[in-house]
What we know:
Strand content: over 45%
Structural class: mainly beta
Number of strands: 6
Number of helices: 0
Largest sheet: 4 strands, antiparallel
Shape: elongated
Distance between the termini: 13 Å
Number of domains: 1
Strand order of the largest sheet: 1-2-3-6
Amino acid sequence: MNNEVFIGFRYGFSVFDQTLNNYTPNVSDAESGNYFPATLKTTSKAATSLNAHWSELMIGIKAETFKNIFIGFSVSYKILMSAKNPEDFQVLFAPGFNRIFESKTGFGLNYTISYLIPFSKK
Length: 122
């Protein structure tokens, strides 16, 4: 059996487009007592050629379940290094990284099913 426990470092990069279809502005109107007015803005805005860079620290296991067939999973801690934001709004999600919070960190879970091609006999 060829079981593994591993730790590692990974670098991620994604290029994507984002469209803001509608939004509700978060403004205060203290005179009328309405702190979050429900005026929905339906102006659509699109941004192209956005990108994000991040790094991941990961730990995981991989186990041989049948002959040459492996099942594994890993947990990663992601740190966003940079994200290109459009002029009018901020990027909220980057493919591969996931949702972008103020702390610019996050967690990820990966699973794999793989087959080892036997090129030579032992």
